[in-house]
# Entry
Amino acid sequence: MSDFTLPTNIKQIGSIGDGLRIYVEDYVCTFLHQYAEAGGYGERLAFLVGRHLMIDGQPILFISGAIHGKHTEEYEGFLRFSEKSRDYAEAMLDEHFPMMEIVGWMQSQPSYGTYLNQHYASYHLRQFRKAYQVMFVLDPIERSNAFYSPDPDARTPSERMAETSGYFIYYEKNTNMHEYMLANKSIDYTASSPTLVEKTPLAFASQDDDTKTDETDSGYEGDESFTDYSRSSRYSMEPEEVIRRHQSEKARRKAPIAEQRRALNMVACLCAVLFVVTFVMGAWIVRSQDRISEMEQQIRLLNTGYRNLFTQLHAGELDADLGPFTPVFVPEDQPIPDMTDYTALPTAEPTPTSAPVSTQPPQAQATPVPESVPTTGQFQIPEAYTIQYGDSLIGISIRFFDTADMVEAIMYLNGIEDADHIVAGRTIALPRR
# Structure
């Protein structure tokens, strides 16, 4: 073995101590987990195939294959390999795994963890007598596993099998395992639903009371859970068997818990969806409220503009002979006076002078307006105008030109794109006719 080299692409699981070092090919680990999961809550066995080497005085075990535990049988509530199982394994070794040997076995125990059952520990020591042959305990429900190997320094029988501190997983092209998998396509690798053996709780009775013993036996005559056990074995069970039955009962109770978790997950998802919908609706309501406030502000401005326009039109009709058209601003909270009542209009106080008061407007006595300055009637149109709060382009056009047709000319001259959007305080130029 001087030309043999250890694999370089490896991953360490746990801490590596002294003694036997175990290298497991990754494809084999995947196969064993799938095979165990396909059994649901039922146990499954398999042979481990590989080679045992001594490299620089260090014992190394390579597990590069696995063989299904076909033709296994149940004895006293535990699975074990039958003679047909071993014959099948030897045939598969010759066909798919040449130059290899059986280096151990795998025992799956769903929902038991990596607890080593003493019955299986004794079975390993009886059937796998070589020092490098190991036992691989796998729990497909809790996704845990551990290797056990014989401990020559054990002080008590219960310590004859010791758990290894760690092992290695290496990666390489495993042609032998691939060909074996193709040749055994009939094997089920799909995880099946749990099948619970225990359907009734285990009842214990005292061996000293024969009457109670008979009543207990008669009460469980039709129970299939007790058909494989004799009367004495039920009352003298090993602690491992009690643990097995307790774990089976725990697995049975896990089924409704899984359903409750699934329901809780659905409720949590529904709550998350409702939260998102509520958040979106709240954001939409806030934006709608902002738009409503903006529309209310625009309506108030429009109302103010129309009130001013209405006041100015009536004032111009009633006071056309009294002077130039003067814009009048009526606050929003002040009612519009009745323009048909001439007494409501302000009158000028008589002057103390004896000179006669002129009935002509002040502009008629002023200097004549040059012909180059446009006028509207007797009102001189200014070149610019500063927009006041409540003004509109329609009101400005009517105020200075006596018509609403000059709105487009005002917009073109001042570069205004929206007639309904003007800013108070801006000075605009008025067009010349």
About this structure: The longest strand covers residues 44-55. The mean pLDDT is 75. The chain is about 35% helix and 20% strand. The radius of gyration is 51 Å.
